[in-house]
Design a protein that fits this description.
Shape: elongated
CATH topology of the largest domain: CBS-domain
Strand content: 15-25%
Distance between the termini: 37 Å
Helix content: 25-40%
Radius of gyration: 23 Å
Order of helices and strands: HHHHEEHEEHEHEEHEEHHHEEE
Mean pLDDT: 84
Low-confidence stretches: none
CATH architecture of the largest domain: Roll
Length: 273
């Protein structure tokens, strides 16, 4: 659409984005979540590694000389499945350890065997620049079957970390496994007429709490989450601070979001609700 306004022939990617955005839920063959994932796939080329990486300050890593039992405790405390290995400093990453190999080493440990060493189960990692496109790293990981990459700056220092889960989340949204801690209820009453809502909260739960039907008959089978409802109302992913109004008078303010998905909303009920 924007390409046409500029007098240019739209690219295939722009044409696909327009078709997906204009294809509303009233057609019934795509849910809002499916449309959002399609948009995420089409626009994946616009993301660089620097947009999705875990920053250096948040990286959990272990020194190659760490005793094996201490490394096991780090895995237990962090619930990660992979940990990068470094020598002396985080700027000298030499590989990674996978929890599957740790379990295998412990299972093969016996009274007549020497204690396992971290170096014996070290795996390779990829080293990539922050300017690399997300889609290229995703393909690289698939081809090489290496699912962790260290992001290296122009001086060779470690800038961040990316796993294949980080990349897939750019398409499907946040992935939580059985080890992730629950952050509490997805819908919280803040004060009279104001709710703090996780975008993943079920629309049915919101409706039950406020005693208002916010989905039309056409949307009822297509929209499951509050984030999906707001995406449907706006026809796109709204930006942080934007307020989306519902015909009932309810307002949805975007508190936390990125370019690809909504995360947290503030819901203000109308005086008549």
């Amino acid at each position: 659409m924007m390409a046409k306004l500029r007098g240019k022939e739209p690219s295939l990617r722009e044409s696909l984005e327009d078709v997906i955005e204009e294809h509303g839920d009233d057609r019934g063959d795509l849910t809002s979540e499916e449309r959002l994932m399609l948009l995420n796939i089409v626009s994946l080329r616009e993301l660089d590694i620097s947009d999705v990486m875990v920053p250096r300050a948040d990286i959990v890593a272990i020194d190659i000389d760490t005793p094996f039992d201490e490394m096991v405790q780090v895995f237990k405390q962090t619930t990660h499945s992979r940990l990068p290995l470094f020598r002396d400093t985080l700027d000298d990453v030499i590989g990674m350890v996978h929890i599957k190999d740790v379990v295998g080493a412990l299972a093969g440990e016996g009274a007549d065997k020497a204690p396992p060493r971290i170096a014996d189960i070290k795996r390779r990692v990829l080293f990539v620049p922050p300017s690399m496109e997300v889609i290229d790293l995703l393909l690289n990981m698939r081809i090489n079957r290496i699912h962790m990459a260290l992001v290296i700056d122009e001086y060779g220092g470690t800038d961040g970390l990316v796993t294949i889960e980080d990349l897939i989340e750019q398409i499907v949204g946040e992935i939580e496994d059985e080890h992730d801690e629950q952050a509490g209820p997805l819908i919280k009453q803040q004060r009279d007429g104001v709710l703090d809502v996780d975008a993943r909260a079920a629309v049915a739960d919101l409706e039950a709490m406020i005693n208002v039907d916010v989905l039309s008959d056409d949307q009822d089978e297509e929209v499951d989450t509050v984030g999906g409802l707001v995406f449907t109302l706006a026809g796109r992913v709204p930006v942080r601070g934007e307020v989306i109004a519902h015909e009932s008078g309810i307002e949805f303010e975007v508190i936390e979001a990125d370019a690809r998905r909504l995360k947290r909303l503030r819901v203000r009920l109308s005086k008549d609700t």
